[in-house]
Write a structure and sequence with these properties.
This protein is α/β, with parallel strands linked by helices and about 200 residues long. Helix content is about 45%, strand content about 10%. The N and C termini lie close together (about 10 Å). It holds the Pfam family Hydrolase.
Length: about 200
Amino acid sequence: MGKPVRNVIFDMGNVLMTFNGPYFASCFTDTPEDAALLNAALFGSPLWTLLDSGTIGHETMTRYAEHHLPERLHPNLHECLAHWPERSEAISDVNELGIRLKEEGFGVYVLSNASTRIMEQLGHAPVIPYVDGVVVSANERMMKPDPSIYQLLCERYDLDPAECLFVDDNEDNCIGARVAGMHAYHFTGDVAELEAAVRQLV
């Protein structure tokens, strides 16, 4: 028998908060065609990952996206960059589970591949006042699924990886957590199944 899980570590995007680039782009444009252009230049760009990794900043991301958009859409781009986190919604059942787990004595943490502006999005999550710690890729210059970022979280908050369950909507990120010595759960939207997985590891 392994050690019981005492800590649950949540990803942010599509676990605690929605992340939907095409939808965000549509909120700041007037036609589906313009939304597709904006999404491709911003959220769908390879540079978005570099933003999350801390390799580039928002100024570089803006310049790149401007270069890939007609000038008439530059105001839409700037509005989207400034306000898209407000369109991200809390996934209420997962947040409620996180709060219940904290009240039961579990440690609750967030580990996210996200930019330095993460709190503009994550700050809307109801679980945040209950969270014991947050690790963000852009701040650390490393990203999931690199096992180093999971190890960093454990070292920073004095956690035993064997006592941690990591929850992510990306299977590759779950593999990285397992390599780092954690349990991992690939979240596909079924919160009851997620809770059952937690209970089985206690």
